[in-house]
Amino acid sequence: MTTDAPAEPQRKKPTRLRRRKDFVRASEIGARLSARLFTLQMAGQGGPGEAAPAGEARFGLTVTKKVAGAVGRNRIRRRLKEALRVSGDLGARPGRDYVFVARRAALDAPFADIVTQMAEGFARIDERSAGKARRNKKDRPAAS
After folding, report:
1. What is the rounded CA–CA span in Å between residue 56 and residue 97?
2. DSSP conformational letter for 79
3. Can you tell me whether residue 47 is helix, strand or coil?
């Protein structure tokens, strides 16, 4: 007996951050947003003084040993990766690196809450970084 249920459309896996320097750059120079399930960090993909490439958004996940044991950390990481995969980019901007630093609450939170907080996080961090850029531009002395 076969079922003719429509198959779920194949979603492309999000591009992952692989190098430590990208994680460190997002942590040091990027914008930061705290949520209940994670802290979201964002930085442009180019280094200081470089133009940001127009590539797709990249994502990194960090779960520290303070959060849980190995099994718990892996489960949190799998849940965050699946939330990114299922929901697409959720408003992540091209040319940016995003790092999720998970919290213990992500282990037991309903999956829908994870997806919702990711979407809200992308929107809020984008607003925050745009506001910071406007303030920095306004605060600069006029060139003569």
Report:
1. 9
2. H
3. coil
- The answer as to whether 70 is a domain residue is yes
Within a domain: 144: no
Contacts of 7 (CB under 8 A, 6+ apart): none
Domain that holds residue 27: 15-131
3-class SS of residue 102: strand
Judged on CB neighbours under 10 Å (0-12, 13-18, 19+), 31 is buried
How large is the greatest C-alpha to C-alpha distance in the chain, in angstroms? Answer: 79
User: What's the predicted TM-score (pTM) here?
Assistant: 0.76
| Dist CA 112 CA 107 (whole Å) | 13
**The 96-102 sheet, strands edge to edge:** 15-16, 58-62, 96-102, 38-44, 31-34
Q: Is residue 10 part of a domain?
A: no
Overall domain count for the chain: 1
One pLDDT digit (tens) per residue for the chain, 144 residues: 555 555 555 667 788 888 999 889 888 888 899 999 999 998 887 665 555 556 888 899 999 999 999 999 999 999 999 998 887 667 788 888 899 999 999 999 999 999 999 888 888 887 776 665 544 444 545 554
Instruction: Kindly report the CATH number assigned to the domain that includes residue 24.
Output: 3.30.230.10
